[in-house]
Amino acid sequence: MKRYRISIIFIFFSIVLLISGYNKFGNSSIDGAKPVGAEEVVDPCDYNRVIHQLQELGFRGKIIATLEDRKQMAQDYGNRVKKIPPLSLAPVSALDVSIVVTAARTQKCQIVTRGTGHALDGQSQSDKAIILITRDLLLPSGKTVEVLTRAGRKVARLSSGQKWYDAVTKLYDYGLRPVVFLEIPGLSVGGTLSVGGIGYGSHQFGLQIDTVTQLTAVDGLGKIRDCAPKGYNKEASMDDRFCESLLGGQGQFGVITSAEIEVTSAKPYIHVKKEVEPDLDHFLDKMESAASNWNVFELFGYITYDQEPRYVVSVGITSDSPTPTDPLDTVSPFLLYVKKLEYATAVDYNSSGRTPYSPAWLNLLVSDRAKFSAIFRSNPELMKTLQGNDFFMIVPIKGPRLHHDSLLQSVTENPGTGTFVIHLDQIRSDFNTSEELRKRNAKLLEVFVAPPFDGRRYWIDDLPRGPKLWELNFGAYYDRVRANKIASDPDMVFRPFPFLFTPN
Ligand SMILES: Cc1cc2nc3c(=O)[nH]c(=O)nc-3n(C[C@H](O)[C@H](O)[C@H](O)COP(=O)(O)OP(=O)(O)OC[C@H]3O[C@@H](n4cnc5c(N)ncnc54)[C@H](O)[C@@H]3O)c2cc1C
Question: Could you give the C-alpha distances from 65 to 61, 86, 106, in angstroms and in order?
Fold first, then answer.
């Protein structure tokens, strides 16, 4: 009996030791499918000393320390997570960001970078970290937008905290626009480059991160670094691995302070035409032919469901002329168009303030049309799940990119094929409680990841996540992602979300 008791005590202490010795880079044996915000971590940071050190090091940005001001950082678009940060800082330059990282490191603090806070699950919030607001960041020239020529091609350099709307408005004065442009232009440049960025032009150019030619960012050691993704001209010292981590890196590898992106000429008008197709085959035909038309700027396919599915394809073509070729076309001047989208975002935001909900924002990426049609034909229930103004976009992925390679494994297996993205951000009127939505989402995902669909998903909606799930998602690339984290942020200054490396 005594031996039995000793064994129990031994096992108990072994478990305690195992838990307390848990490596901060994660242990793949733990599935951290923990609800967001459930962690209880002791915060070793002395925020007053951080402020003191910032002043000593010549920080020029804003120090936001009053409770009233900090409360404004305790919200996001999802409106479910509310964490008041102990300190918020709004740096104005890459040097300022470097000072913040240095002070945070010295005082054992963590940092969460925040763009416009449009995330759903508290990605840009924390009550145990400094919130670094990118809003006031400027380029070294003091501007927010510059146009330069690299290898004979025009590119735009953008400060990362500005909204796409502001960047597009300024670029328009140069007669230019980004090749991939968001449906919601009120998001920050750095924020969308940290998740991928899908929108107008994606059917031709892929994700926004596929159009980045160079980045400037501050790593977890406080070093200001320039990097260029693979395939772009770069100086010898530039580091591909750092760039591949930052793009789609959810703020876990560094703070992007500015980005250079591909641009194209901005015509002043867009002719938009919506057509209803009789069935799925015609719908897919239309989407595919529109995707291969170089003049198409906007391409959305909607499937709405009311007793029967209704297949709508919306195609927008940029034009120099305000006169539509077809009397059924609607015409929008480009900037007005951008403004209209901005307005739509504001309306969404207000409604999110009233009702706690989680809009399902879900991109499902699959390799080819055959799989896509098969899943729809064999799952009539799925069509009902997609009721509302849901749309599908065809997105050919431009080149392999670390995060997307793994998330889009099926695409790399079938090079050259199109990818379908399913975008469900407008179904909230049907599901205004997150619990209900969570169940629907979970069900939807189950269907999509099952054979023959085998889609890899790129989610930012409300589903359990954890190192184990990320590991599964990244597959063979997980070790590389982990190695990149250790190289760029060995002290884990950038607070990980959503639990890419740790269970909390
Ligand atoms: C309803 C809805 C619709 C959406 N539609 C689209 C869409 O059509 N296309 C699309 O691409 N995305 C879409 N998104 C996703 C959106 O792009 C991301 O939520 C994006 O991160 C928001 O940008 P933000 O500036 O608000 O970032 P935040 O919410 O402030 O931050 C998001 C993440 O990025 C990190 N981050 C922010 N800035 C930086 C930086 N400078 N350096 C490093 N890390 C940084 C943060 O730490 C955080 O992890 C949608 C989201 C919702 C909720």
Answer: 13, 7, 19
CB within 6 Å of ligand 1 — which residues? 76-77, 112-120, 123-124, 134, 160, 182-184, 187-188, 190-192, 194-199, 250-251, 255-256, 359, 361, 425, 460, 497
As a 3-state breakdown, the chain gives helix, strand, coil percent values, each rounded to 5, of 35, 25, 40
Q: How far is the CA of 346 from the centre of ligand 1 (A)?
A: 16
DSSP 8-state secondary structure symbol assigned to residue 422: E
Q: What is the mean pLDDT of residues 431-457?
A: 44
Find the 161 Cα to ligand 1 centroid distance in Å. Answer: 11
Nearest CA residue ID for atom 4, ligand 1:
361
Plot region of 108 (φ>0 → left; ψ -120 to 50 → alpha; else → beta): left
> Is there a contact between 109 and 127 (Cβ–Cβ < 8 Å)?
no
CA distance 20 to 38: 18
Torsion of CA 479, 480, 483, 487, to 10 degrees: -170
How far apart CA 91 and CA 102 sit, in angstroms, is: 13
Residue nearest to atom 52 of ligand 1 (CA): 361
For a pocket test of ligand 1, which of 200, 361, 431 has the largest count of ligand atoms closer than 8 A to its C-beta? 361
Q: Which atom of ligand 1 is nearest to the CA of 217?
A: 42
Show Cβ contacts of residue 496 under 8 Å, excluding neighbours closer than 6 positions: 252, 502
- Confidence at residue 477, expressed as pLDDT on a 0 to 100 scale: 65
CATH numbers and ranges of domains, the chain: 47-133 (3.30.43.10), 145-266 (3.30.465.10), 269-467 (3.40.462.10)
List all residues 6 or more positions away from 135 whose beta carbon is below 8 Å from its beta carbon: 90, 115, 161, 162, 188
The pLDDT tens digits for 276-316 are 988 877 877 787 777 767 788 887 766 665 556 677 788 88
Alpha carbon distance 292, 300 (integer Å): 14
Report if pTM > 0.85: no
DSSP per-residue codes, 100-133:
HHHHHHHTT--EEEESS---SSSTT--SSSEEEE
